[in-house]
Amino acid sequence: MTICKHLGWLQVTGGKEVALVNPGRLTRIVGELTNPTAQQPSVLFFIGGKAKTQALRELFPNHIKKGRHDGIATLRVDHTSLYSDHPVLFAESDPLTTVVSTLDTSCHETESFPIRWANPTTVHDVYDILHARIFCPFSDVLCIFADDFPDLSSVVDRLKCWAIAGGGSSPPRPSVVIVKQGGEASASPTLDLLEMQDAQFNLDQKVLKDFYTSIKVLYLADEQISPLARFRRLKELLWRQMDEMRNIRLRCRRLYSAVHLNKFFQMAVSQTASSILRPFDFVLASRLGNEVGPDHVDHLTSFLRLGTDCGLSNDTIASFIASTILLDAYPPKMHRKW
């Protein structure tokens, strides 16, 4: 059996029609976990070029340079976290990369979906739409390297583009860390972009706040110190943001197991390929095959009337209805009991 070294998380193939391909990378990673039905992964997404690659070598030593970097984004797992309750998955993409790639199915199964809303002349728009509609909802933290962009305004423009394209997506939404080289590090190593009063950001703050949980700007220390020390503050910030996002997901009842995360991803790819008129909804997806019927309100009204006619107290009726809603919303094998 051929050992699969492909790292592509998602691919776009060209030809007569543009297609979105799920190469099964997340499925293979879930298969490596020790208890995927209970483990709840966190996803870090790194965006950039040379500066991003340099940072990944320090953040995840022994993980870079392994495998084939194919697709619009690659996905790996930090093997030191395989046995933890919250494995760390990390993805990466390059905004200047070629979006369209060739499809190789020699060593793994793939799912291909024609992109109904795209054509070969708009493939770069596909890059932004996929980040907004698929990668952002499935990531906890986006780490963007500003030095791989023309300037900080270009990064803000890209974030704004994703916010507009992904508007209306299900919360919680990812937090963002923008990384820049030195400069202002001595004055303030970490800034909150959403709280800056600079005029160039004022017009963008509303749309950014509606889509991202937070946006931090981190200035790296001087290159004269060791790489380990230089990127230590970045690692601490990323892990802190991951913990915060995990707590937010827990409060929202949307901290999914690896098995559910993988299934949701498959469904999101299929839906996004067919239409971008509506964002992927995790709640509606979880009820596929168990949709709320159009006569639901009528049945509830009849039950309330019968309960009142039988002399049941409001507390008893409300308690019974609440328990049925919980049982219906969280059937066996869901990601939590309630």
Explain the overall architecture.
The structure is a single chain. The protein is an alpha/beta fold and 338 residues long. Helices cover 39% and strands 15% of the residues. It contains 12 helices and 10 strands. Strands 6-2-1-4-5-3-7-8-10-9 form a 10-stranded mixed beta sheet, sandwiched between helices. The longest helix has 20 residues. The chain is globular and about 80 Å long. The mean pLDDT is 84.
Helix-strand blueprint:
Elements: E1 8-13, E2 19-22, H1 25-32, E3 42-47, H2 50-59, E4 73-77, E5 88-93, E6 111-114, H3 123-135, E7 141-145, H4 152-165, E8 175-180, E9 190-192, H5 199-202, H6 205-211, E10 215-219, H7 227-230, H8 232-251, H9 258-274, H10 282-286, H11 296-309, H12 314-329
* Main sheet makeup: 10 strands, mixed
Order of helices and strands: EEHEHEEEHEHEEHHEHHHHHH
Helix proportion of residues, in percent? 25-40%
- Terminus-to-terminus distance: 42 Å
The radius of gyration is: 22 Å
Mean pLDDT, all residues = 84
Structural class: alpha/beta
The spatial strand order of the largest sheet comes to: 6-2-1-4-5-3-7-8-10-9
Summed up, the helix count is 12
Say how many strands there are: 10
The rough form would be described as globular
Question: Uncertain segments of ≥5 residues (pLDDT<50)?
Answer: none
Q: Hey, roughly how much beta strand do the residues contain?
A: 5-15%
